[in-house]
Design a protein that fits this description.
heterodimer; A: alpha/beta; Rossmann fold; 5 domains; six-stranded parallel β-sheet; 25 helices; 24 strands; B: alpha/beta; Pyruvate-ferredoxin Oxidoreductase, domain 3; six-stranded mixed β-sheet; two-stranded antiparallel ribbon; 24 helices; 8 strands
Chain lengths: 717, 506
C-alpha cells in the first residue's frame, strides 16, 4: 500500500455531468481517463506521476465497476508493451511513467508500437521531471516523440486544458493510428485547480471482447518487409491525418494582440509562466489579455506548418519559448518559414537560455530582451534608477550576508531508516579493509552519496547497480560493492545485475536493500512486499529469486539495524574465497511506511487501555564531548546538535529529539564503533500492567534509597 | 491595495523541509481563499526533497470579484518570480536565508514570516567541533531583505501547544494582516481541515500573538545557590580574579569538587596560580590566558572515565532529566538502558596504576579481559541489578587518584601547563592558543586517541610554528584543520602549508 492514501480523492472520480472537480492536476488526468472510456490503464510509479498510480490502486473498485483493468507494471517497458492491446482492437488504453528515465526504459516497446501503429487510442502520460527539485538527468522527451513518431501533447497547465488534452489525445491517436504522448511538467502534475466534470464512460468494446474474439493483422507487426511500409505510412498517411485532426479541432490556440508585427510561439506547458512574464513587463493583464499575439502549441509534435506560416506571416519577428535543449522547435520553425520563403526573424535561444528551467524570472528577462530588440517602444516605463538601485543593492546585500551561512540541504535517509545502518556498517568495514569501489543504484539508498556517508561512485539507472560494476570483474586485491533496492531488483536488476554476474562469473558483492516497498517513489507494493495486498500477489522472497538464477553465496539479514552483523557479513562477502557473486539481502521495513502503519495501531491500543511500549534514544549531555562521531556514522534527522549546557565547553552536544522512533541504530553504532557511553534507550510504558507497577515500586524503593545517599553526599560539599 | 490599479494575484511562497507540513499549510491557504471569495492555485516541487530535503510550495490567490462576468479565468503563475512575491513563509531560519539567497524576498514588497528555530544541516552536524551557521547573520539578512519581517520560534510555539509548526506559521500569517481575511476565516479553515483541530488552533493562536509582537513570557532563571561553607574559601579565592576568568574558575571549582573532592579543587586553584601570575605579567590585563587555561584545565582534570560516567548515570537528577527529555507523562513508566562498551584499556585505567600497567602488558589475562569486552553491554540502570553495577563502579571514586589513568592525565596536564607558561613569556597570544588546543583531547576510545595524537603533532610542531609570521594564528588554523575531519586529510594539508618567515624578513 502506498505512502499516501487517496480514499477521499477516489470519491471525486465518481463525479458526473455538471459537477466541479477540485484537486491536483494528476488526479484530474485520472478522472479524464474515465470520462474518455478507457479500457485499461498501466504504469510504473515515479515522481511526478506516482499519485496517478496510487489513486488508481485505491480506486480499483470503481475501475472494476466501469470494466477498466488496472495493472502495476513491472517496469516502464512492461507498461509501454501493455499498449499492444490497442494495436488490433478498438480499445482505449493509457500508460504512465516518469520521464525521461521511464521513457528510456520503455523505448523498445514504444518504438515497436509506433512502427506498426494502433487501432484504439493509445495514450502515454509522461510525468516530466525537469527543472528545480528534479531527481533525474535533464533531457527532453521531445526527442522520443520525434525518433519514433509519436505525437506529443504539451497542454496549458490548468485543469480544463489538461483534461481536454486527455480526451483529444485519444481521438488524435485513433484518427492517425499513432500512439500519443501527453507530457505534464512537475508543477502541472501538482497544480491544484478545478474543472467541470462529465459522466464516466464504459468502454463500448471491452477487453473481454478482445480475448474472446482474437484478431491479428500482419501489416501491424514490426518485421521486414512491413517495417519499410510502416516507415512510409508514418509520413504519407499518419502525419497528414494527425495534422488534419489538430487543425480541424483547433488543438493549438491563437491569441490576438495589438502589437501584431511581432508574436510569441510558446509550448502550451509554458503558457502561464510566459503570461506572467508579459504581465511583469507591462504587456498583459492578469486574465491573459496580451498586447503581443500568441500561438500556443498544445501539440509540440507534429508541428502544423500551415498554422505557423499563418501566425508568422506579416510579422517582423517572433519569439519561440521552448524549454530545454536541443532547440528542436526553433530549428523546425526556421525550416518551415524558409521553405515557405517567409522572412520573419525567429528569436528564441538568443534571448533565452539554452539550458535550464524557464521560470518566471528567466522568461521575464528573455521577454524584456526580445522587446528591446524588436519593439523598444513597448518597453514598460522604467522606474527612476534612484528608486531601483538602493532596493536592488539592499536585496543583493542581504543575499551576500546570508550566502556563507546557507548550507545545502540535500535529501537524506528518514528518521529510523533501515538503509542507514547498512552504510554505517560499510563505513566500519572501510576502516578495516580500506575504501572499495561502490556502484550505486536508483532509490533512497542513493542518498548515501551525500554526507555523512559519502559512499557511491556512479549510478547508471534503476536496477543497474550491479550492472554498473560489471567491468570491474577481474582478480584483484579488492572487490567492488554494488547497491540495489528491491524496487530496482524486480524492475530489471534480477536479470541485468544478478543473472549477469552469475553468467559472467563475477566475484563482486551485491547488497540488495529489501525494505518491503518501492520506497523512493512513495511506498508502492512490489512482488517481495511483506504486506497482504488484495489486488496483487506479494511475499515472493528475493533470496529465492536470487538462488533461482544461480547465486550460491546468499545471506539474508532480517534486521539491518544489527550493525555488527551487517559489518561482519559484509566483511565476509568481501574476503571469502568462495567464487561467484556474493549477494547480501538486507531486510527491514521502510520506516516511513512502518510508522504510517503502526502509529494509528499504537494510538488505538493506548486508547483501549492496553500496555504499549514506545522506545526512543537519548544522549546524556554531561558525558557527550561534542565530537559528533555518532552523527558521522548515522546522519539521522532525529540525531542532531544542541548548545552545550556546560559553560566550560563550546562545541554543541549531540541531542536526540522526540521524533526518534527508537530504531536502535544509535545504540548499535555506539557499540560496534566503540563510540561513547552517552547514548541511552528509554522505554516508555503506557498503561503499565500490575507487574510493571510492582517492579517499578520495588525498584523505586531500592534505587531511591541509594539515590538519597548520593544526594546527601553531593550536598555535603 | 489601490482600487484603480488592475487586479493582480497575491503571491505566496512557502519554504519548508520535507515532512514539515508545508503541504498542510498550502492546503489551509487554498481552503481559506476559496471560502473568502478568491480563486486559489497552489503547486509544489516535492520530488526526492520530501525525504528531509529543502522543498517549496507556491500559492497564488486572486479575488473572484476581480474577474469580469463571463471573462476567462485569471492566468495564475506556477513559479515564484523574484521581486514579485508578496508573502514568503519559511519554516526554519536557514530556509529563510535560502529564500533571501534566491531573491524571493524584496524590500519593496515582501512580508517575510520566518521561524527562527534551527534544524541543523548535515554539514553543521557532522563537524568535529562547532560547525553551526551564524544565526545572527541569517536573521540580519532576513531583516535587511524584507519589507517587513516577522520572526519567532514557531517550532517552540508549536511544541508548547502540542501541535505542528504549520499551524503556528498559519497563525503568524493571520497575525501579520498581510492577507485581507479575518482571523475567524483562518480558524474556520483549520476547523474544516478536521485533523488535530484543537492543538492546531492553540498553535495558531500562539503564532498569531507572536506576529502581533507579543513575546511569550520566559521563565526567570533560578538564582545560583549559595556555596556551602566548605566551598566558601575556594570561591573567595576565585573571586579575587577579574572577569572573564572569575566566572570560569567558579564553575571549575564546582566541577572538580563534584568530580572528586575539595582537595582536587584546591589542586586546581594551585595549578592556576602561576598561570595567573604569568598572565598578569605579560597579558596586558586582558585575562584571556588565565580564562582559557582555567577552562581547559577544569575540563582536563575532570576527564571522562568509567567512574565518572557511572556516577553521572545514576544520579537522581539524571533520572528526572531523562523523564523530562522523553516527555514522559504521569502514570507512564520509563525504563533506561545504557549502551556501554568498556574495553580492556578502560578497565586498566580504573585499576591502581601498577596493576593497570601489569594488566595491559600481560598476555593471557589481557586476552581474557578482551574476550569479555569484545562487544558492548547494555546496562539497564532502571533495574536494581543494573543500578547496583554502576553504583559499585561509581564507588571506586576514592581510588581514582591512585589509578593508571589519573597518573597519565596529571602528567599530560603538567606538561601542557608548562608549555603554556614558558611560551607566555615570549608570546602571550600563542600561549593562549596552546591553552585552547588542549580541547583536541576529548571523548572516549578512538576519538580520544585520535585527538591526543593530533594534539601531540601540533605540540611537536611548536618550534616550527614559532617561525611563522603569526604563530598564534598558525596554531589556531592548524587546530581548526585538526577538527575538520576524521581522516586527518585537512590537518595534513594544513601542516604542509605551514611556512616559515622568509629569512630576508628577519
Amino acid at each position: 500500500m502506498a505512502e499516501r492514501s487517496f480514499k477521499e480523492e477516489v470519491e471525486k472520480l465518481k463525479l458526473g455531468d455538471g459537477a466541479e472537480f477540485h484537486g491536483e492536476g494528476i488526479l484530474a488526468v485520472t478522472k479524464a481517463l474515465l470520462q474518455s472510456g478507457v479500457s485499461y490503464v498501466a504504469g510504473y510509479q515515479g515522481a511526478p506521476i506516482s499519485h496517478l498510480m496510487d489513486v488508481l490502486a485505491d480506486a480499483n473498485e470503481i475501475l472494476e465497476g466501469l470494466g477498466v483493468h488496472f495493472e502495476n507494471s513491472a517496469s516502464e517497458a512492461t507498461a509501454a508493451a501493455t499498449l499492444a492491446a490497442s494495436v488490433n482492437y478498438p480499445l482505449r488504453g493509457a500508460v504512465t511513467f516518469k520521464s525521461t528515465v521511464g521513457t528510456n526504459v520503455a523505448s523498445d516497446a514504444l518504438a515497436n508500437l509506433a512502427s506498426g501503429g494502433v487501432t484504439g487510442g493509445a495514450l502515454v502520460i509522461i510525468g516530466e521531471d525537469y527543472g528545480e527539485g528534479s531527481s533525474i538527468m535533464q533531457e527532453r522527451v521531445h526527442a522520443f516523440a520525434m525518433k519514433s513518431q509519436m505525437w506529443l501533447l504539451d497542454p496549458r497547465p490548468n485543469l480544463p486544458s489538461i483534461v481536454r488534452a486527455v480526451e483529444s489525445g485519444f481521438e488524435l491517436s485513433e484518427a492517425s493510428n499513432t500512439p500519443v504522448m501527453l507530457m505534464l511538467r512537475i508543477r502541472a502534475c501538482h497544480v491544484y485547480g478545478r474543472f467541470a466534470t462529465k459522466d464516466n464512460k464504459r468502454p463500448v468494446f471491452g477487453l473481454k471482447d478482445a480475448l474472446e474474439n482474437p484478431r491479428r493483422d500482419l501489416s501491424r507487426i514490426a518485421m521486414p518487409p512491413m517495417t519499410y511500409i510502416h516507415e512510409k505510412d508514418k509520413w504519407e498517411k499518419r502525419w497528414p491525418a494527425a495534422v488534419k485532426y489538430i487543425e480541424n479541432n483547433r488543438i493549438n490556440e491563437f491569441f490576438d494582440g495589438e502589437a501584431d508585427d511581432i508574436g510569441i510561439v510558446v509550448q502550451g506547458g509554458l503558457y502561464n509562466s510566459t503570461l506572467r512574464a508579459l504581465l511583469l513587463n507591462g504587456l498583459a493583464d492578469a486574465f491573459g489579455e496580451s498586447k503581443i499575439p500568441l500561438y500556443v502549441m498544445n501539440v509540440t509534435y507534429p508541428l502544423v506548418d500551415k498554422e505557423l506560416i499563418r501566425f508568422c506571416a506579416g510579422k517582423k519577428a517572433v519569439l519561440v519559448v521552448e524549454e530545454g535543449h536541443p532547440d528542436y522547435l526553433e530549428q523546425a520553425i526556421n525550416t518551415i518559414l524558409r521553405r515557405a520563403d517567409i522572412q520573419t526573424r525567429i528569436h528564441g535561444k538568443d534571448v533565452l537560455p539554452m539550458a535550464g528551467e524557464y521560470t518566471g524570472a528567466v522568461l521575464r528577462e528573455g521577454l524584456r530582451q526580445f522587446i528591446e530588440k524588436t519593439r523598444p517602444d513597448l518597453r514598460a516605463p522604467a522606474p527612476p534608477a534612484s528608486e531601483v538601485a538602493p532596493a536592488h543593492q539592499q536585496t543583493a546585500g542581504a543575499a551576500n550576508a546570508v550566502n556563507e551561512q546557507v548550507h545545502g540541504r540535500p535529501p537524506s535517509f528518514c528518521t529510523g531508516c533501515p538503509e542507514r545502518p547498512i552504510f554505517a556498517a560499510m563505513k566500519l568495514v572501510e576502516r578495516e579493509l580500506g575504501p572499495h569501489h561502490v556502484s550505486a543504484d536508483i532509490g533512497c539508498h542513493l542518498f548515501s552519496i551525500f554526507p555523512p556517508f559519502n559512499v557511491g561512485a556512479t549510478t547508471m539507472g534503476y536496477g543497474l547497480g550491479a550492472a554498473g560494476a560489471s567491468a570491474l570483474n577481474i582478480k584483484a586485491g579488492k572487490r567492488a560493492i554494488s547497491m540495489m533496492g528491491d524496487g530496482g531488483f524486480w524492475h530489471n536488476g534480477l536479470t541485468s545485475g544478478v543473472g549477469n554476474a552469475v553468467f559472467n562469473k563475477s566475484d563482486n558483492v551485491l547488497i540488495i536493500v529489501d525494505n518491503g516497498y518501492s520506497a523512493a517513489t512513495g511506498g508502492q507494493d512490489i512482488p517481495s512486499s511483506g504486506a497482504f495486498n488484495a489486488i496483487r500477489s506479494t511475499k515472493h522472497p528475493i533470496e529465492q529469486a536470487v538462488r533461482g538464477v544461480g547465486v550460491q553465496w546468499v545471506k539474508t539479514l532480517t534486521r539491518t539495524y544489527d550493525v555488527a552483523a551487517m559489518r561482519d557479513t559484509l566483511r565476509e562477502a568481501l574476503t571469502t574465497t568462495e567464487s561467484g557473486p556474493k549477494v547480501i539481502v538486507a531486510q527491514s521495513e521502510c520506516m516511513l511506511n512502518k510508522q504510517r502503519r503502526i502509529k494509528p495501531l499504537m494510538r488505538k491500543a493506548v486508547e483501549r487501555g492496553e500496555r504499549v511500549v514506545r522506545e526512543r534514544f537519548g544522549v546524556d549531555a554531561d558525558t557527550c564531548t561534542g565530537d559528533h562521531s555518532c552523527i558521522r556514522l548515522s546522519g539521522c534527522p532525529s540525531l542532531t546538535i544542541a548548545p552545550n549546557p556546560d559553560p566550560l565547553r563550546r562545541e554543541p552536544v549531540t541531542k536526540v529529539i522526540n521524533s526518534c522512533v527508537g530504531c536502535g541504530l544509535c545504540g548499535e553504532v555506539s557499540h560496534a564503533a566503540v563510540l561513547c557511553p552517552s547514548f541511552y534507550r528509554a522505554s516508555i510504558v503506557t498503561n503499565p500492567s500490575g507487574w510493571d507497577r510492582f517492579k517499578a515500586r520495588l525498584r523505586a524503593a531500592v534505587i531511591g534509597f541509594l539515590q538519597r545517599r548520593i544526594e546527601r553526599k553531593l550536598q555535603a560539599v | 491595495m489601490n482600487p484603480s490599479a488592475p487586479p493582480r494575484p497575491i503571491t505566496i511562497a512557502i519554504l519548508a523541509m520535507g515532512g514539515e507540513g508545508g503541504g498542510v499549510l498550502a492546503d489551509w491557504l487554498v481552503d481559506l481563499a476559496e471560502h473568502s471569495g478568491y480563486i486559489a492555485q497552489t503547486t509544489s516541487v516535492p520530488g526526492v526533497a520530501q525525504r528531509t530535503g529543502a522543498t517549496n510550495y507556491y500559492v497564488e490567490l486572486f479575488p473572484k470579484s476581480g474577474s469580469r462576468a463571463n471573462a476567462p479565468m485569471p492566468v495564475l503563475g506556477l513559479t515564484p518570480v523574484p521581486g514579485d512575491v508578496d508573502i514568503v513563509i519559511a519554516s526554519e531560519l536557514m530556509e529563510g536565508g535560502r529564500a533571501v539567497q534566491r531573491g524571493l524576498v524584496t524590500p519593496d514588497k515582501t512580508t517575510f514570516i520566518v521561524s527562527t528555530n534551527r534544524v541543523y544541516a548535515m554539514t553543521e552536524k557532522i563537524a568535529l567541533a562547532d560547525g553551526r551557521a551564524d544565526s545572527t547573520a541569517l536573521l540580519e539578512g532576513c531583516r535587511t531583505a524584507a519589507k517587513r519581517l516577522i520572526a519567532a520560534d514557531m517550532a517552540q510555539l508549536a511544541e508548547a501547544t502540542g501541535s505542528v509548526i504549520s499551524a503556528a506559521l498559519f497563525g503568524a500569517l493571520a497575525g501579520s494582516k498581510a492577507l485581507p481575511m479575518q482571523r475567524t476565516a483562518f480558524e474556520a479553515a483549520i476547523h474544516r481541515g478536521g485533523v488535530g483541530v484543537k492543538a492546531s488552533i492553540a498553535a495558531f493562536g500562539a503564532g498569531f500573538a507572536a506576529a502581533e509582537g507579543e513575546i511569550a513570557p520566559t521563565k526567570a532563571a533560578a538564582p545560583p545557590a549559595a556555596p556551602s561553607s566548605a566551598l566558601s574559601p575556594l570561591m573567595a579565592e576565585a573571586d579575587a580574579y577579574a572577569e572573564p576568568a572569575r566566572g570560569i574558575i567558579r564553575v571549575g571549582i564546582e566541577r572538580l569538587v563534584d568530580y572528586q573532592d575539595i582537595a582536587y579543587a584546591r589542586d586546581y586553584l594551585a595549578r592556576l596560580k602561576p598561570i595567573a601570575e604569568t598572565d598578569k605579567k605579560y597579558g596586558g590585563g586582558s585575562g584571556h590566558l588565565l580564562a582559557e587555561t582555567a577552562r581547559e584545565l577544569a575540563l582536563g582534570m575532570a576527564y571522562e572515565d568509567t567512574v565518572r560516567v557511572a556516577e553521572l548515570k545514576i544520579r537522581p537528577s539524571r533520572f528526572e532529566r531523562v523523564r523530562h527529555e522523553v516527555q514522559a507523562a504521569d502514570g507512564q513508566i520509563v525504563e533506561i538502558a545504557e549502551f556501554l562498551h568498556p574495553r580492556v584499556e578502560e578497565i586498566a585505567d580504573t585499576l591502581p596504576a601498577s596493576l593497570g600497567r601489569r594488566l595491559l602488558n600481560s598476555g593471557f589475562p589481557r586476552r581474557l579481559v578482551e574476550r569479555f569486552t569484545k562487544s558492548g553491554r547494555v546496562v539497564k540502570t532502571s533495574t536494581i541489578r543494573g543500578f547496583l553495577l554502576l553504583y559499585a563502579i561509581a564507588a571506586l571514586k576514592p581510588t581514582r587518584r591512585r589509578s593508571l589513568r589519573f597518573a597519565h592525565e596529571q602528567k599530560f596536564l603538567s606538561e601542557w601547563l608548562r608549555t603554556v607558561a614558558t611560551t607566555a613569556a615570549s608570546d602571550i597570544a600563542l600561549a593562549t592558543e596552546i591553552a585552547t588546543t588542549r580541547t583536541l583531547v576529548k571523548g572516549y576510545s578512538d576519538t580520544h586517541e585520535r585527538g591526543r595524537a593530533r594534539y601531540d603533532t601540533l605540540m611537536q610542531m611548536l618550534p616550527q610554528i614559532m617561525t611563522t609570521a603569526d604563530p598564534a594564528a598558525t596554531l589556531a588554523g592548524l587546530r581548526k584543520a585538526a577538527l575538520a575531519d576524521d581522516t586527518g586529510t585537512a590537518l595534513a594539508a594544513a601542516i604542509k602549508d605551514v611556512r616559515a618567515l622568509p629569512q630576508a624578513a628577519e
